[in-house]
Amino acid sequence: MTKHPNKRTGELGVTKVTAQADGNQTAEVISAPLPPNKEHLELLFAQKFVEQFNAEKPLGVDCTIVSLSQNDTSDLDFNISCSLADYLELAELNPQSEAFGREALRTGKFNIYTYARWIWLKLIKAKQRSYGAQTAGRTILLLYCTHWQFLPTDKVPECLISTLTLEGCQFASVFIMQTNTTDLTVTRKIWPYEGPKPRRPKDYSGFIGINFPPGRTNWKIDVFQSPPEEPKAL
Questions:
Q1: Are strands 78-82 and 65-70 parallel, antiparallel or unpaired?
Q2: Comparing C-alpha atoms, which of 44, 17, 13, 16 is closest to residue 31?
Q3: 58 is in which domain, residue-wise?
Q4: What pLDDT digit, counting tens, does each position of 10-67 carry?
Q5: Count of structural domains within the chain
Q6: Cα gap 156→183, rounded to integer Å
Q7: What percent of the chain is predicted at pLDDT more than 90?
Q8: Which of 93, 124, 131, 130 is nearest to 211 (CA)?
Q9: Of 85, 165, 84, 153, which is closest to residue 124 (Cα–Cα)?
Q10: CA 206 → CA 47, 109, 180, distances in Å?
Q11: CA 174 to CA 61: how far, in whole Å?
Q12: Is residue 215 assigned to a domain?
């Protein structure tokens, strides 16, 4: 029997606010159920992604994923049958090893440019270097998160689009999960990009991403943000 190691996950979900007869409000977190081990967690996100991918057809009406087969931990995460790609690889947005990530874990705030730069260097660029251009060119990369503090607000995908447009990307396609609901089906395509010319990545260094703690009816927002740190290249 294969033993799946437990993986500490965070919390995703929605906040349900109920008005009481006395005029007060109560809030409770309706959490998205997340499996405790890595393989089951990735299977959950992969299945949700494939379902949404086939419903929305973001890479063209004739591009669907007709099969999904999970591999062991030594390979790319999933084999898929798709006209664009042969593999689906997942990468978790969990920068707890970085100073900005530990701060975000405490506060829910992060610098947009710093976060997007970390995703580019430590996830996208590192994985495409590991797999090589040929394999990456037949792989769809899905970026997902399990902590509400690291949910990528709208400008994170914008900054990533800007970065990939400038730097180039070897993956067949890259998607990022943005949802903070229990259905986990909101994803955004960041590569390939066919829109208007984006602004420069550095232009996002003045923006702050804020994720509000679930289970509250109000929040106090501190808008101060220290200057962004530059993640080091691998």
A1: antiparallel
A2: 13
A3: 29-210
A4: 777 655 545 566 666 655 656 677 888 889 999 999 999 999 999 999 999 999 999 9
A5: 1
A6: 21
A7: 68
A8: 93
A9: 165
A10: 36, 13, 24
A11: 18
A12: no
* The pLDDT of residue 71 is above 50: yes
In-domain check, residue 116: yes
DSSP β-ladder status, 65-70 and 25-31:
unpaired
Nearest to 174 by CA among 163, 205, 34, 96: 163
With respect to residue 103, please indicate whether it lies within any of the assigned structural domains: yes
Structure token digits, residue 97: 């090893």
Spacing of C-alpha 207 from chain mean position: 18
- For the chain, how many residues are written? 234
| 191: β partners | 174
Report pTM: 0.84
Q: How far apart are CA 65 and CA 8, in angstroms?
A: 30
DSSP state of 203: G
Distances, alpha carbon 73 to alpha carbons 19, 90, 94, in Å:
47, 12, 19
Q: What is the mean pLDDT of residues 228-234?
A: 48
**Residues β-bridged to residue 88:** 78, 140
pLDDT of 3 strictly over 80: no
E strand residue ranges, 102-207: 109-111, 139-144, 173-177, 187-191
Residue 219 lies in a domain: no
